[in-house]
Design brief:
The chain contains 9 helices and 5 strands, in the order βαβαααβαβαααβα. The chain has helices at about 15-25, 30-40, 45-55, 60-70, 90-105, 115-130, 140-150, 155-160, 175-185, and strands spanning about 1-5, 30, 80-85, 110-115, 165-170. It has a 5-stranded parallel sheet. The chain is globular, with a radius of gyration of 16 Å. The chain starts with a strand and ends with a helix. Bound molecules: adenosine monophosphate. Adenosine monophosphate (AMP) binds near residues 9 and 64.
Length: about 190
C-alpha cells in the first residue's frame, strides 16, 4: 500500500497515520516529524527548516523534496509507505509523481481527512496545551490554516482528477475515523 494522507493541520493526520501504518504494515513517513527530529539534533537540515517552521510557512521545496526523495530510497519503503504531510503543494505532488512513475510504483490512494476550520482551531488550541509545539500558537495556527488553503488544498483537486482521491470526514472519535479510513481504503 502506497498511501498519502492529506488534510489541514489538526485534522488528526499524525494520529491516524500511526494506526494506518500499523494496519497496513508500512512505514509512517512524516515530513514534520523528520524536520522536528533534525531541529532537535541541530543538523544543517534542521537549521535550514527552523525559521519556516516557527512561522508556520512551508520549508522550501528544494529542501523538502530532496529529503523525501532520499527517504523513499530506504529499503523499508519497498512494500509501501504512508506519507503524512507530504506533498504540501502541487509542485511537491508533481515531484512525487515523477519519482514514483520512474520506479513504476504509483500511489494506491490519497486519503483526504476533511474537517471544518472552527473544529481545527479548538483542537489545535488543545494540542498546544498538551504538546507545547511552538507552531501551535494561535496566530501561527491561523497562518498554517491559510497556508493549507492556499498552497496545499490544490493538491486535493490534483489527486481527484488523477482518480486516486478518497475523502472521509475527520470528525468523531479517533477509532471511528480509523475504521472509516480502513473501510474506505479496503478495496484499494
Ligand atoms: P506537520 O507536523 O506536518 O504539521 O509539519 C510541521 C511543519 O513542518 C510545517 O508547518 C512546515 O513548516 C514543515 N513541513 C512539514 N512538511 C512539509 C512539506 N511537505 N513541505 C514544506 N514544509 C513542510
Amino acid at each position: 500500500m502506497r498511501l498519502v494522507l492529506v488534510g489541514p493541520p489538526g485534522a488528526g493526520k499524525g494520529t491516524q497515520a500511526v494506526f494506518l501504518a500499523s494496519h497496513f504494515s508500512i512505514p509512517h513517513i512524516s515530513t514534520g516529524d523528520i524536520f522536528r527530529a533534525n531541529l532537535k539534533a541541530g543538523t544543517d537540515l534542521g537549521n535550514q527548516a527552523k525559521a519556516f517552521m516557527d512561522r508556520g510557512d512551508l520549508v522550501p521545496d528544494s529542501v523538502t523534496n530532496e529529503m523525501v526523495k532520499d527517504r523513499l530510497t530506504h529499503a523499508d519503503t519497498a512494500h509501501g509507505f504512508l506519507l503524512d504531510g507530504f506533498p504540501r503543494n502541487v509542485a511537491q505532488a508533481q515531484v512525487l509523481s515523477a519519482v514514483l512513475t520512474e520506479k513504476k510504483t504509483p500511489l494506491d490512494a490519497v486519503l483526504e481527512l476533511q474537517i471544518d476550520d472552527s473544529e481545527i482551531i479548538s483542537r489545535l488550541n488543545n494540542r498546544r496545551s498538551v504538546e507545547s509545539r511552538a507552531d501551535d500558537a494561535e496566530e501561527v495556527i491561523v497562518h498554517r490554516l491559510n497556508v493549507y488553503h492556499e498552497q496545499t488544498a490544490p493538491i486535493v483537486q490534483y489527486y481527484r482528477s488523477e482518480g486516486s482521491l478518497i475523502t472521509i470526514s475527520a470528525t468523531g472519535a479517533v477509532d471511528e475515523i480509523t475504521t472509516r479510513a480502513i473501510t474506505a481504503l479496503g478495496n484499494k
